[in-house]
Amino acid sequence: MKITADLIVAFGLVAALILNIVLGGEAQITMNISTGLVGWLGKIMFAPSAKTDDQKPTVKSPTPQQKE
Q1: Is 65 a residue whose pLDDT tops 80?
Q2: What would the mean pLDDT of 2-28 be, rounded to a whole number?
Q3: How many other C-beta atoms lie within 10 A of the C-beta of residue 9?
Q4: Of 66, 15, 62, 67, whose CA–CA distance to 36 is shortest?
Q5: Contact predicate 33/13, CB 8 Å
Q6: CA–CA dist 3, 29 (Å, integer)
Q7: Non-local CB neighbours of 41 within 8 Å, separated by 6+ positions
Q8: Percentage of the chain modeled with pLDDT above 70
């Protein structure tokens, strides 16, 4: 697994959320951290990947059926 900026940010938000819950932080801060975490993970999941053409799967279009 390669360590990227996305992984570091996600890990930091999860750690901050867990620490805030364990240490009894305010509900507003907990909600802000969890909202940021959901938004960041959503951005990561739906962002176009930086794969090269060699790594992308090849999808062939179906051949048209001949009419008889």
Answers
A1: no
A2: 88
A3: 16
A4: 15
A5: yes
A6: 27
A7: 10
A8: 69
